[in-house]
Design a protein that fits this description.
154 residues, alpha/beta, Helix Hairpins, Chitinase A, domain 3, 2 domains, two-stranded parallel ribbon, 3 helices, 7 strands, 40% helix, 25% strand
């Protein structure tokens, strides 16, 4: 079982709990009913509906286990972050070769890079953690190295 700490905002944790509740109260019973109905149609060896329901059941059960582990190991991100160094929950404005960018450092469960929400486990997130305003940071990624200067932490 996964015992890795999940860093997450209070809002993000609420969303995970809501998804888990839906999986347990709605999706699991729906799939059980589909399997029951498919079994009544006779020969299971050639029953595509039964196979589809079993596959979906496996996915839902896996997702339930993942959600339960994430919630169990959740650590709420402090919303009152320090502005003198980068930490999870910080909004960091940087200046790089491609111009200025803004990143919000979040836990991996809430990362959405296209929206500027990067994981503390990503190469950029790891490189920024613990740094101060004015620090120059070099991020090593497979595509090459990126250099950033931290302009502001909020």
């Amino acid at each position: 079982m996964n015992t890795k700490t999940t860093y997450i905002s209070k809002d993000g944790l609420d969303k995970l709990r809501a998804e888990l509740d839906e999986m347990l109260a709605v999706r699991r019973p729906e799939i059980a009913q589909r399997i029951h109905d498919a079994k009544e149609h006779g020969d299971l060896s050639e029953n595509a509906e039964y196979e589809d329901a079993k596959n979906e059941q496996a996915f839902v059960e896996g997702r339930i286990q993942t959600l339960e582990a994430m919630i169990k190991n959740a650590t709420i991100i402090d919303e009152h972050t320090s502005t003198d160094h980068v930490q999870i929950g910080s909004t960091v404005k940087v200046k790089g070769d491609d111009g200025p960018e803004t990143f919000l450092i979040v836990g991996s469960a809430e990362a959405k890079p296209a929206q500027g929400r990067i994981s503390n486990e990503s190469p950029v997130g790891r490189a920024l953690l613990g740094r101060k305003k004015g620090d120059k940071v070099v991020v090593k990624v497979p595509a090459g190295d990126f250099a950033y200067t931290i302009v502001e932490i909020s």
